[in-house]
């Protein structure tokens, strides 16, 4: 059963014919077992015309890439195998890409406060979790715990003042070999409150000590460098690639296969409709609701709005919308591989659950992607790999922005023609202007401005 009639259909195709053709055009493909499925395509030119990059965008990509490669060549970096031995040595790469963040990072990258700040407002702001009980594989020596005002660790944990960053997903992964040199990848545990305590591997052992701020300067610094390297891998593989790019493709392919263009869901997600960021964002925080100076959380929670409630007046309408239900089940099957423990629904039963689910989908491709993607070009202490006593810093692949930005709330294609949705969009655009002003005003008082959730910087969707 369909909730929405097909009085208006495209050209000579009926609703059924449109969906049948889309199922042919957009086929699922298993690229690697265990990863979300992707669209079946031999190369970009074999994609359906409606999702293929335009000539203009393709030309922009080529120009951006050639410009970046030319600049790297002029700096002697294109084929260079020389190792960078300090953050200062990287400054020549950033000489034309300086930002307040890059300059601040180059001055403060050794400091514990800045190290901790990046867990809240860096490129990976979703790893931090409130810690009520120490993990068994993190045997901290109590007499070496240093907290403010000589408080006891157990008391501070019960008060909710202790946080844990656990990189257990990296445990057992084999690091790359770069220029013939084997790299090192750790799976650290980081305990933080007002100071830090680090363990670089998951399992306690004689060769896996816990590092404390009272250790020698260079032991402590190297421990933090190894954590930053692990954070880069966790961020790029899980938080950025998997949780935004790969899932965004699943959401889009399922939409194109199962939902006709006249359906409000198609209009909403194709335009990245102004749904609430907050619902999905709040589920990620895991006890970090009241951490001070957590701008990723603060800015994301300020947007609460929606259009789909205008179209669905009852839970029954949600349950009877077969196209909506097929879109949901396709995402569960092909994106989350039918794993019930992911918390992803196989079907939608209420208007509230439908709005929450669509919110998650839209937030993933817009706000969340902005938060974990934009900062890559601004942080000079993102460590790609560690070999011996030397470290490599992310550079060539992220200094040049290949996206084609359409800001949140701006819709080049007019999907909505009805009066009420159009007024809701105008209202939402007004709210975005206010939020931008609020963020800019706050940032004036910050040494490191947080701009990734500024609507002017958030794209409507993952653009590449």
Automatic annotation (TrEMBL):
GO terms for molecular function: metal ion binding; oxidoreductase activity, acting on single donors with incorporation of molecular oxygen, incorporation of two atoms of oxygen. One of its GO terms (biological process) is lipid oxidation. Keywords: Dioxygenase, Iron, Metal-binding, Oxidoreductase. Signal peptide: none annotated. InterPro entries: LipOase (IPR000907), LipOase_C (IPR013819), LipOase_C_sf (IPR036226), LipOase_Fe_BS (IPR020833). Its cofactor is Fe cation. SUPFAM superfamilies: Lipoxigenase. Residues 1-267, 289-464 form the Lipoxygenase domain. Pfam families: Lipoxygenase. Belongs to the lipoxygenase family. This is Arachidonate 15-lipoxygenase B-like. It comes from Acanthochromis polyacanthus (spiny chromis).
């Amino acid at each position: 059963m369909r909730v929405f009639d097909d009085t208006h259909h495209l050209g000579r195709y009926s609703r059924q014919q449109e969906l049948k053709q889309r199922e042919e055009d957009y086929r699922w493909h298993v690229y690697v077992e265990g990863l979300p499925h992707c669209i079946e395509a031999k190369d970009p030119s074999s994609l359906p015309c409606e999702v293929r990059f335009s000539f203009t965008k393709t030309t922009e990509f080529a120009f951006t890439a050639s410009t970046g490669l030319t600049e790297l060549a002029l700096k002697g970096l294109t084929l260079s195998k020389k190792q960078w031995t300090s953050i200062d040595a990287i400054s020549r790469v950033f000489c034309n890409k300086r930002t307040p963040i890059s300059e601040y990072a180059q001055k403060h990258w050794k400091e514990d406060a800045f190290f901790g700040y990046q867990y809240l407002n860096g490129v990976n702001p979703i790893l931090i979790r409130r810690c009520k009980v120490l993990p068994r594989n993190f045997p901290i020596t109590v007499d070496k715990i240093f907290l403010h005002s000589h408080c006891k660790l157990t008391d501070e944990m019960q008060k909710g003042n202790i946080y844990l960053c656990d990189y257990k997903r990296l445990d057992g992964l084999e690091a790359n070999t770069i220029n013939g040199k084997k790299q090192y990848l750790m799976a650290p545990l980081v305990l933080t409150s007002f100071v830090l305590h680090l363990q670089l591997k998951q399992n306690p052992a004689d060769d896996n000590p816990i590092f404390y701020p009272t250790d020698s300067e260079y032991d402590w610094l190297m421990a933090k460098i190894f954590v930053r390297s692990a954070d880069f891998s966790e961020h790029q593989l899980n938080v950025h690639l998997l949780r935004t790019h790969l899932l965004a493709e699943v959401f889009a392919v399922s939409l194109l296969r199962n939902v006709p263009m006249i359906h409000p869901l198609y209009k909403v997600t194709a335009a990245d409709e102004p749904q609430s960021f907050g619902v999905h964002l709040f589920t990620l925080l895991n006890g970090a609701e009241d951490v001070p100076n957590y701008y990723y959380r603060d800015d994301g929670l300020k947007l609460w709005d929606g259009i789909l409630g205008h179209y669905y007046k009852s839970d029954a309408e949600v349950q009877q919308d077969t196209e909506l239900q097929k879109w949901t089940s396709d995402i569960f099957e092909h994106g989350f591989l039918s794993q019930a423990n992911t918390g992803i629904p196989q079907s939608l039963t209420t208007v509230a659950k439908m709005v929450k689910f669509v919110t998650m989908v839209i937030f993933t491709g817009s706000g969340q992607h902005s938060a974990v993607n934009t900062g890559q070009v601004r942080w000079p202490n993102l460590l790609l790999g560690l070999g011996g006593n030397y470290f490599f810093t992310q550079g060539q692949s992220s200094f040049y922005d290949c996206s084609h930005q359409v800001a949140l709330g701006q819709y080049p294609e007019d999907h909505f023609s009805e009066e009420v949705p159009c007024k809701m969009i105008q209202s939402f655009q007004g709210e975005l202007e206010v939020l931008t002003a609020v963020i800019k005003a706050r940032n004036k008082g910050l040494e490191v401005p947080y701009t990734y959730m500024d609507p002017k910087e958030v794209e409507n969707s993952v653009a590449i």
